[in-house]
Structures are given as structure tokens and as C-alpha cells.
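explain this.
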Amino acid sequence: MNKIFSSKEFVVNKEDCDWNNHLNISNYFSFFSDSTFLLLKEMGFDSRDDKRQINVVVSKIFTLHKKELFIGDKFFIESNIIDFDNSNIVVNHKLKSNNVLISKCYLRLDFIDKKTRVKLEVPKSILKECKRFFVAGAINVFEKIIL
């Protein structure tokens, strides 16, 4: 059964905002990055503890912002896998507040050797877990935007 991974609820703090009192763009990326690593951890991969000396890097990223968040706004991030193969994984994050889509982020993840920095195949254990969070058909949007 495919499922969507949801983050905990966050609250926008004053320190997170720019001079317009909107959530600063750099913090959107920070929340998306944190959600990526939480999803990978849920899938059984944590590069800090990986004995195979494998790391994950973002090789492509695209964001689409639809609305602004302000101080005190509460939000959460839904994450799923929209494409995967032996070469990479594509993650889709949807940041929502009051069930309204605020921002989307598409990330293509590559796996590399920590020492040599050479690109590796996606570990088989991760490929198996991708199926749990896979949403069929969503890659079409990413392909139109990125390719």
C-alpha cells in the first residue's frame, strides 16, 4: 500500500521571516531538506549512520510557491516518491497550511560514495522502500518542468 509521509506540524517564528514578515525563502528550502532526510530515515536510510559510507545529494531541485506564510502560521509537509530507478529518486514535497497548498518542491536525489564522491546506484534496500511512498503519474509534472 502506498502512503504519503507527513512531517510534524511547524509554526512560523519571527526568526524564520524576511523583512516582509513572510517565511524567508531559505527557510522553505531548509524545511524541505529536513523533510527529505526524515523521509529517508523512515525508509531506513540515515547517511550519518550508514556503514556502507554512502551519502545522498540533491542533483536537481524545483520549487513552486503559491502563497506566503506569516508569523504564527502553522504548516506541515507531505512527502512522497514520484519516480525512482537504480540511478536516482525523485521526491515531491507539498507544504500545506490549513489544508491549502502553499508550496511544492521537487528534488532529484543521487547517492554517492562519501570518500570518492562518485555517483552510486541507489541502494537496493532504499529501492524496495520507495514502493511504499510511490505515487504513480506524478512524475509527468516534474518532467515537464525540469526536462
User: Anything to note?
Assistant: The mean pLDDT is 89.
